[in-house]
Amino acid sequence: MAKILVIEDEPKTANAIRSGLRGEGYDATVAKTGEDGFFQLNAEPFDLVVLDWMLPGRDGIEILKALRARGAKTPVLLLTARDAIEDRVLGLDSGADDYLVKPFAFAELLARVRALLRRVGDTDIFRKQISDLVLDLENRRVKRGSQEISVTPREFDLLAYFVRHHGQTVTRHMLAKDVWREPRRATPLDNVIDVHIAHLRRKVDEGQRAKLIHTVNRRA
Ligand code: CA
After folding, report:
1. 27 CA to middle of ligand 1, Å?
2. How many separate domains does the chain show?
3. Is 211 among the domain residues?
4. Is residue 204 pLDDT above 90, yes or no?
5. pTM of the predicted model over 0.85
6. Residue 178: which CATH number?
7. Distance from residue 32's CA to the centre of ligand 1 (Å)
8. pLDDT tens by residue, 49-66
9. What is the mean pLDDT of the chain?
10. Last residue within a domain, chosen from 69, 101, 121
11. Separation of 11 CA from ligand 1 center, angstroms?
C-alpha cells in the first residue's frame, strides 16, 4: 500500500484529500504545516507527497527545495491556486514532479497520483490480495482465483475499501462517508449500501467455499 503524505493547511481540503485517498486504498497522512510535513518526511519514508504551495510559515516551494536539497527523490505533486505559466515553471524547477491547479476534480488528483506512483515503478502497490481475491487498483479489475469478476465502479470502490480494512468491522456510516462521500445527503444511504453489498457478495462469494465478506450484526 502506497504511503502518501498530504501537506495542506486548509482542514477541509486536507480531510477531503485524505479520506478520498484512503477510500482508494492508499495510506494517507496529513501534515498541517510545512514544518510538520518536513519533519514527517525526515522521520519516515513516504511513496508520494501531495504538497500545497501556500502554507503558513515555510511554504510549499521552500519545503520542496529543502527536500530535494537533501537528495530525496520522493515524487511530489504540487497543489496551487496559482496557474500562471511562471508559477508552473517555478514549481517544476523547484523539484515538483507534477502540478495541479486548485480547484481540481478529485478524479484528476487520483489520476496524477497513480501516474506518479507508476513512474516510481513499484507495481505491487497497485495490487492487493486477500486469500484468492486479487484487486488491481490501477486498472480497477477484480479476480477471485483465476476467475475475472466484473464489478461496477461503485462496487470496486466498496471492495477496495473492504480490502483496505481487512479484518476490521466496517460500518454503514463509514461507507457512507468514505465510499459514497455524500455527507450532506438528506436521506440515509443504508438501503443503497445494503443492495451494493448484496450484489458484491453474490459476485465475490457465491459458489465459493471460503466466504470473504462477513456481516457483523450489532443489534443482538
Ligand atoms: Ca494552503
Report:
1. 22
2. 2
3. no
4. yes
5. no
6. 1.10.10.10
7. 9
8. 999 999 998 899 999 999
9. 89
10. 121
11. 9
Query: Who has greater pLDDT, 109 or 43?
Result: 109
Domain CATH number, residue 43 = 3.40.50.2300
Nearest to 83 by CA among 112, 54, 113: 54
User: Does the pLDDT value for residue 32 go beyond 70?
Assistant: yes
Distances from the Cα of 195 to the Cα of 28, 201, 202, angstroms: 29, 10, 11
Q: b/e string for 139-173 if b means 16 or more Cβ within 10 A?
A: eeebebeeeebebeeebbbbbbbbbbeeeeebebe
What is the Å distance from ligand 1's center to 145 Cα?
45
Ligand 1 centroid to Cα of residue 212, in Å, is 41
pLDDT for res 121:
62
Confidence of residue 2 (pLDDT cuts 50, 70, 90): confident
Q: Of 96, 121, 146, which residue sits at a domain end?
A: 121
Residues 57 and 156 in one domain: no
